[in-house]
Amino acid sequence: MSDRRRHLLALLTAAVMLFSHPVLQLVDALAVAGPDWLLPAYLFAAWAAVILAAALAVERGRRE
Amino acid sequence: MALVGTALTLSILYLAALFAVASFGDRRAGQGRSVIANPYVYTLSLAVYCTAWTFFGSVGLAATGGLAFMPVYLGPTLAALLFAFVLRKILLITKAYGITSIADFISARYGKSGLLAGLVTIVAVVGTVPYMSIQLNAVAASLELMLVHSPNAAFMTGADSALLVALLLAVFSILFGTRHIDATEHHQGMVLAVAVESIVKLLCFVTLGVVVTFWLFDGPGAILEGLREAGRGDLLTLAGTGYGNADWILLTALSALAMLVLPRQFQVAVIENVELPHVRRSIWLFPLYLFAINLFVLPIALAGVASALGGSPDSIVVALPLAAGHDWLALVAYLGGFSAATAMVIVETVALSTMVSNDLVMPVLLRIKALRLERWHDLSRLILMVRRVAILLVLLLGYVFFQLIGNRYGLASIGLIAFCAMAQLAPLIIAGIYWREAALPGAVLGLAAGFAVWIYTLIVPAMAGTGTLSITLVTEGPAGIGLLRPTALFGLSGLHPVSHALVWSLTANVGLLVLVSLLVRQNKLERLQALLFVDVESSRASTRLWRGEAQVGALLDLLRRFLGPERAEAVLASDAAARGRALARDEAADAALVQLSERGLARALGAASARVVVGSVVRGEVMGPDELMEILDETQKVLEYSHRLEEKSLALEEATGELRRANERLQQLDRLKDDFIATVSHELRTPLTSIRSFSEILHDTPDLEPAERQHFLHIVIRESERLTRLINDVLDLSKIESGRMEWHVGPCDLRDTVQEAVAASEGLMAEKKARLECELEAGASVVVCDRDRLLQVLINLLSNASKFLPAEDGRVRLIMRRHRDRFEVRVEDNGPGVPPAYREAVFEKFRQVSDDLKSRPKGTGLGLPISRHIIEHFGGRIWVEDAALGGAALCFTLPVPRADHPALAAE
């Protein structure tokens, strides 16, 4: 399997964990003590991070 | 003009502009200058995923369930990360076998089954109807909302806006999507139009989001403040979604599957794909689009909640600007939603109409002999007509669904219901491309069961909700059996209705697919197709499926009837180009042309029907699957044989390389041997010449002075000794190398031997005016070896050191010390030293380090090679390194013998 494919699979695993219900519950619980917009902010930040990582994995693979 | 009139005018102008864009795209494609052949247009076409549901429904869902809309977009983001695996493989298969739709894909995998193709088409049409109703609902609701704000719009009063929208979209889709009958030919104009629509809907939504967030409100903080005042802070939490623990995961997975199996997604991602590499960049560009279009969903929805607009939450995007008095912004929102809806409807109807005509209607029509279709000279018009009627019917079905059920549910709820229906195709596709044993009966039963469960768990409750069916069916179960309640089947409760339906429908689907596939045997054609699909990367070679004969004329007539004259000629022209000449009508068509014709027909009729139709003109028979499997087996054997040959060829190449290297080494050794012989000859000749010369003088001159005679005799003796030493060295080396050396092995005191060697070398050192120092560690120093040979080594090393000493103040130091398991002896000097590059070369036989250094050698150059042989024979090691005195250090080790060594015991 190429490095790009391995990186994408690893990213998929990480993304599934980031968006899994237990992790979201944890963030939701933190929002009780912190700002009430924490959960939406987390979701969009994690989403952006996954896209950025995917772009790096794909484009770096292209150059190689 | 009234606002609603402006919206309608805008809609028509927008459709006209889209038509112009599509025509431009088609024209450019006709000129061979495709405008869609790049990853950006490909990604924008994938964004057809975002329909009116995204535009209106996501905001509506967010207004009632906060973050509940997110799984629908996180799912495709996760799915995109698998594009490089799943989508790539589907594309390879599609391009290799001329697939025209998702139904064609599934049917081709399971033995080109017409039954399965028809079933998939029914599932796709029924599953898409609710989705179609969303589009009509959303656009109609927006128009009606604007009608309320248009007091002068008498012309619309009493009009059924949903029907109006359905007819408008049907006319546009028919004009747009059924201009060609070749379903595999890329609809370049359509794809370009969809890409433009993706840009339009994104711009409209972002514009709306920015204006609402930063103009109507003073930024996100003000919206949040309004939300708190409205007492709806729960919309920012997980609890606000109304989803249970499993719902979030299940709905995300459902959306990921939808990305793969929705007919319109299959159409743009697979059928319309121009180049395989475009997939790669869409892996991150498509999620980026989803991210961008969803960025303002929550702010707009929360702004709607904070504004307490009332009415349907799905109408917030239009209602919010209207309430603020910004009619222009309402038109922007309407245009974005209309754009999203039209893109979806166009692609979906093109995909569905192809499936309906190829996999449902035409196979049936071809079997009805009373129609006498065989007498029709041109069936292409019939095919186009079927597709156009299919488009109209699908949209009208969507309208009926909207009237019966759709307008009682939110857009998002209906969208998820549609997703769940289409998800039933996913197991067939995934198993089809990764599991060879997946069999047709399992696929048919699994799909039928999954679809039936979907109807029972989602459609039945929806119909009961509208009063079409008895509500007790849902509340008490059929015949009062509580375990069979459609919304809590077998007691499973606490899930979102769609999650509940997904769990049971996929359980039935996958369970039957796997179970039946394991129990039944595939027929030969299924086995063949399974092999071609699962191993697509290794079996893409074209397979000749036909045997027997057909006349070119008969094939041409067949192609003309189904494809029309132009496309039929094009098929023959491509055959002529491939074989280098055109075949005449009365010539026999070979397997290649029959295969090409079948593919051409498959584009219009689908794989299953094309096979039947071609079979009608080929004399003889279709090559049986048995024979085909035999051919494949043969091919496999040939490939394996070829692979083995390749391996042997590689091995031969390696052996040749080794032989070449060995030969070079031999040539080098030969050169060294010649050099050595030359050196030895020279060394022999020098003393021999001296001995002869001085012997002749002594013989011819009897009256020599006694002192002079004595001097000459001394020279003769010295040269004789030198000669003896040289011959001894050569003999020693020869004996060692041939294994004939006699070793007198026994215990030997290393310190004594060293001291003896030092004593023997004192004269030599005195001659060189060099100082010889010894540092010998105290303690036992017994080794097991041949004492005389060890002495030879030590004298050799001391002699070697003396040869390179400086003329003045030469120093040689001999050190002996013991390590844990070995003794080490070092002979250091303060000569010029040996550069690192030559430190191994000095031990090579037939090689004198001085060949490479500037000074001439002193001696035969065999001392060190002989020393290495002796030391290594006794388990030691010898090497050169830098000396503390500044010159070279010749070092060797010998092992400390174990107490039970036989040589010690004998002693």
From TrEMBL, chain A:
It comes from the Bacteria. The keyword Transmembrane helix applies. Keywords: Membrane, Transmembrane, Transmembrane helix. The chain crosses the membrane at residues 39-58. This is Uncharacterized protein. The lineage of its organism: Bacteria, Pseudomonadati, Pseudomonadota, Alphaproteobacteria, Geminicoccales.
Automatic annotation (TrEMBL), chain B:
InterPro entries: HATPase_C_sf, HATPase_dom, His_kinase_dom, HisK_dim/P_dom, HisK_dim/P_sf, Na/Glc_symporter_sf, Na/solute_symporter, Sensor_HK_Regulatory. PROSITE patterns: HIS_KIN, NA_SOLUT_SYMP_3. Its EC number is 2.7.13.3. CDD domains: HisKA, SLC5sbd. It holds the Pfam family HisKA. The chain crosses the membrane at residues 6-25, 37-56, 68-87, 115-134, 154-178, 190-217, 242-262, 283-308, 328-361, 382-405, 411-435, 442-464, 501-520. Residues 679-898 form the Histidine kinase domain. The keyword Coiled coil applies. Its main location: membrane. It is found in: Membrane. The keyword Zinc does not apply. It is a multi-pass membrane protein. It catalyses: ATP + protein L-histidine = ADP + protein N-phospho-L-histidine. Keywords: Coiled coil, Kinase, Membrane, Phosphoprotein, Transferase, Transmembrane, Transmembrane helix, Two-component regulatory system. One of its GO terms (molecular function) is transmembrane transporter activity. Residues 645-679 form a coiled coil. One of its GO terms (cellular component) is membrane. Belongs to the sodium:solute symporter (SSF) (TC 2.A.21) family. This is histidine kinase. It comes from Marinimicrococcus flavescens.
